[in-house]
Design a protein that fits this description.
By secondary structure, the protein is an alpha+beta fold. The protein is built from seven helices and ten strands.
Length: about 230
């Protein structure tokens, strides 16, 4: 399938899996030096080719529909790491609920309760609250000092990246499940994975956990290391 076909199919999937209530959420995929992203207000489960916008890697609108107002989030992930080829931003209920709580730690709003969360998503920091569509959301994500595949946006939702749309949607679903379990066990004497267990899982599955990268202006994160951003 083409990148466009993948994008339309991913829109159907996030709706069918309950990750995108109503007309909320947005998706994008990178094809070469172009980004295809769902248009503003596009119903993800019923998108057509004319609902897709085309941007360059700096976020300039090149063709198609008016892009989602959350396009800075997507561009930030692509700028952080060229290995990211798809981005999913959704307002799934459990992730939104956890985004309304104080974070579990500085580097992850979600505690390590299951191995699957650590393996498939990894640490998920909570980014500061900004109004939806605020360009500063993208800058917050791009300069976040923690290596990451996903983040929670305070009082807002989640954003996940992957090597393709299937992986990005899989991570969004896994994060939603981790948040649901977090809420179900809140206030109980729950048993988190030990630091040793988390470190072993993160190493075996090459998932981010606990690594901090301090960025200087004009730098991006590339697989946990700082690189110049041009």
């Amino acid at each position: 399938m083409s990148a466009l076909d993948d994008l339309l199919a991913a829109g159907v999937r996030v709706v069918e899996e309950g990750l995108s209530p109503g007309t909320s959420g947005n998706l994008s995929v990178r094809a070469g030096d172009r980004i295809m992203i769902s248009g503003t207000g596009a119903p993800l489960g019923r998108m057509r080719p004319e609902d897709i916008a085309v941007l360059d890697l700096d976020g300039r609108h090149l063709d198609g529909a008016k892009p989602s107002k959350e396009w800075p989030l997507h561009i930030a992930f692509y700028q952080r790491d060229p290995g990211h080829r798809a981005v999913v931003h959704v307002h799934s209920p459990s992730a939104v609920a956890v985004a309304c709580l104080e974070p579990w730690s500085e580097h992850s709003a979600v505690p390590p309760l299951t191995p699957y969360f650590v393996m498939r998503v990894g640490q998920t920091p909570l980014l500061p609250y900004r109004r939806p569509g605020d360009p500063a959301l993208g800058e917050d994500l791009r300069t976040c000092p923690w290596e990451l595949r996903g983040a929670l946006l305070a009082n807002h939702g989640s954003v996940l990246a992957g090597t393709d749309l299937d992986e990005a949607v899989d991570r969004a679903a896994e994060l939603e499940e981790a948040c649901r379990i977090t809420l179900l066990t809140s206030g109980m004497p729950r048993r988190e994975l030990t630091a040793e267990a988390v470190a072993e899982l993160a190493a075996r599955w090459s998932s981010p956990w606990g690594e901090r990268t301090t960025l200087s202006p004009g730098e991006e994160v590339v697989h946990g290391e700082a690189a110049t951003h041009s």
